[in-house]
Amino acid sequence: LLVNQESFRGVADRFGMSKGTLHHAFLQFVNGFINLMPKYICWSLSDQFPELAGGFQRNTGFPGVIGCIDRTHIPVRGPSEHRDSFINIKGHASFHPQAVCDSNLKCTNIFTGYVGSVHDACVYRNSDLKKYFDSNPLPVEFHLLDDAAYPLDAAMITPFRDNGHLSETQRRFNTSHSSTHVHIEKAFGLLKCKLRRLHHLDMTLVHRIPSVIASACILHTFVLINESLDDEYQHAIDEVPCQRENPHNTEDESGLARRRIAEEG
């Protein structure tokens, strides 16, 4: 049911069962994968940081990156009551999950509870990951890459805002940042390519949607751990634009000294 967009009724008819029985089986499947989350999606221990950073540096040359973070919108029907809270910036009802991926596009952290109207920075500020970083600061040589919608802080490096007056060094930094941060965009693209139900979750049990999204992320990571990408999916993620101007340039100096230690504060 996650891999296509066929209706519950159509799948139920195909297997000779009632729609209610299929729905119950689907939710059991979701609960089963949620129970597997600690095995497949868990934040890495500090002794794994060098290996994670090495993967990104081999791919793009950006040093010290242990993950790329971003959000994506999962379209939903949305409830009739309080529907406005589900409407995202594009005018559609959605949930707004956040994820971190490694250099192999596997999820290493997910946070799925917020609806489309919530600002990106608010999603991060209220996430378990932010609370973890508040109590467990990253070593200064390691960091996540985020986009301009996130706040620049001690754990995460954002690109320089292009006000038309960036220096050559800042522009080169942004290019290198973009060619590395694109990993999370490719991870989301692959997730939705493999699990096409996420193109629109037409569910009336709105409170179960975060669990369905989380189970899809777990399944995505499980597949990447156990299988290589076939040509169809490789082509799909290659379609994501990727700026790669001199990708092995190492003048980033550990994220321009971690964006000058989060812009001095």
UniProtKB/TrEMBL annotation:
Transmembrane segments: none
A Pfam family hit: DDE_Tnp_4
Ranges for domain DDE Tnp4: 69-220
Localization (cell): Nucleus
Keywords: Hydrolase, Metal-binding, Nuclease, Nucleus
Region Disordered, residue ranges: 244-265
InterPro entries (alphabetical): HARBI1-like, HARBI1_dom
Cofactor: a divalent metal cation
4Fe-4S keyword on record: no
Cross-referenced PANTHER family: GH03217P-RELATED, PTHR22930
Family that this chain belongs to: Belongs to the HARBI1 family.
Protein name per its UniProtKB record: Nuclease HARBI1
Origin species: Huso huso
